[in-house]
Amino acid sequence: MDWVWFLEAPDYGFARQVLQRGTAALFFIAFLSSFNQFPALLGEHGLLPVPRYMERSRDYGRPSLFRWRYSDRLLRLVCVAGMVLALLLVAGLPQLGPPWVPLVVFLALWLLYMSVVNVGQTFYGFGWEMLLLELGFTVAFLGSEEVPPPRTILLLLLWLLFRLEFGAGMIKIRGGSEWRDLTALYYHHETQPMPGPLSRQAHLLPKPMHRMEVVGNHFAQLVVPFFLFAPQPLASVAAGIVIFTQLWLVASGNFAWLNWSAIVLAGGAVSDPVLRAVFGLPEPAGSPAAGLQSPVWWTAVVLAVTLLLLVLSYRPLRNLLSSGQLMNASFNRWQLVNTYGAFGTVTKHRVEVVVEGTLDADPDGTEGWREYGFKGKPGDLRRLPRQWAPYHLRLDWLMWFLPLRTIHEPWFYAFLHKLLDADPATLRLLRLDPFDGGRPRWVRARTFLYRFASRAEFRENGERWVRLELYEAIPPLSLPRSPGK
Question: How far apart are CA 396 and CA 373, in angstroms?
Fold first, then answer.
């Protein structure tokens, strides 16, 4: 039975702490984001109401608690339950019991959040949703403090990080030529969906540094992931490189919990001896006991899940090697062992949709139009972009996609009608309501070309953005009014 040593990894106690508590913290943020935004976006009176969606999808096959009944109250109860369970895990309380306790809590988080994602339609169509679901399911089988970390689960989590990083790298190499000629970062910081407070400074770096950024990205995503499976301390060094590059992405933009998920996963490659060597900590007293330390039933559960996830890995592995690589795709209804990737091409120009309203009876006037302000997306030329990640502003993200696809999305017209109604829930999604809760007579949507101001332009007028009007995308809209109003 000498081979059983491979099943357990007693030197990865810190890694388990990072994986469990970090994943739980991300679940808390995801549920908090849904609690604050879901009712206005997808609730009973939202832009894309879930009840109407479920009525149209009678053959709906994805698992969700809302498949049979949806209400905003039930949604909020699910989010509160998810936040409470996540906080318990962050505090480490379930991890103090038998291994089945954190298992049950993590699986509850997975099922609760899957219920939300699977009815979230376009507002939940982001790769980091399925990433969090896969991460939560896999981390569930790391056990508790009563058993050593299972080595096969740690390896499967490294396989998840490998797919996340290497998949993103291959998408870029197979995508736009800007990644191959090293010019992608000439544009990315300026045109990314939601810039952060340092994005303009990153954009204004000299072009040779941008080219070095691209080379560093290719190295971090196409070479480094293989070393995650190398012996220590190489695996920890590879994890450190991943963490460093992800922190740069955190500092230079807002990508919800995508980068933080990668950082949490990279923590799973760092062993306790490496940490002790780096920080000069003493060796633990005593020597590890020989033989298998986990109960047989727990080892059987871990091996069964390992086999399941290995079988499900076939299609994602084939996808990684395919010239027709899919990005952010799931191959099963439970969203386990998915394929990931982002920014296969980089947008060269930033087009923003600006939403305005007016109280004037005549919409043809040019003086009475006032601009609505969004929390995350660019608008006010002087305003410094905010740091929101890992919190996810779903409306702002979809506003970025509008000019890239079509502005004539059903949810966007619903949004405009909510503004005409001065719907309080919708207005809470915004940073600025220029009518202070009042109803405008008309609303419209115009498009502008945005670019970051140069240092000289900023010194001259204090504006961080320069914009040029393109065209009126949606002409003035109004709601029917009763006589006399």
Answer: 10
Q: Is the peptide bond before 233 cis (omega within 30 degrees of 0)?
A: yes
pLDDT score, position 291: 62
What does the pLDDT read at residue 282? 83
Distance (Å, rounded) from C-alpha 271 to C-alpha 233? 8
Check: pTM over 0.85? Answer yes or no. Answer: yes
Residue listed under structure tokens 């569930």: 140
Say if CB 221 and CB 171 are below 8 A apart. no
Nearest to 452 by CA among 109, 268, 166, 192: 192
**Structure confidence at residue 1 as a pLDDT band (50, 70, 90):** very low
Tell me the pairing of strands 430-432 and 350-358: unpaired
Residue with tokens 């079988």: 311
Segment 352-381, tens digit of pLDDT: 999 999 999 888 877 889 999 999 999 999
Per-residue H/E/C for the chain: CHHHHHHECHHHHHHHHHHHHHHHHHHHHHHHHHHHHHHHHHCCCCCCCHHHHHHHCCCCCCCCHHHCCCCHHHHHHHHHHHHHHHHHHHHCCHHHCCCHHHHHHHHHHHHHHHHHHCCCHHHHCCHHHHHHHHHHHHHHHHCCCCCCCEHHHHHHHHHHHHHHHHHHHHHHHHCCHHHHCCCHHHCHHHHCCCCCCCHHHHHCCCHHHHHHHHHHHHHHHHCHHHHHHCCCCHHHHHHHHHHHHHHHHHHHCCCCCHHHHHHHHHHCCCCHHHHHHHHCCCCCCCCCCCCCCCCHHHHHHHHHHHHHHHHHCHHHHHHHHCCCCCCCECCCCCCCCCECCCCCCCCCCEEEEEEEEECCCCCCCCCCCEECEECCCCCCCCCCCCCCCCCCCHHHHHHHHHHHCCCCCHHHHHHHHHHHCCCHHHHCCEEECCCCCCCCCEEEEEEEEEEECCHHHHHHHCCCEEEEEEEEEEEEECCCCCCCC
How far apart are alpha carbons 414 and 221 in whole angstroms? 40
Average pLDDT of the chain is 94
Per the DSSP assignment, residues forming a β-bridge with 445 are: 355, 474
Burial status of residue 2 (CB atoms within 10 A of its CB: 0-12, 13-18, 19 or more) = exposed
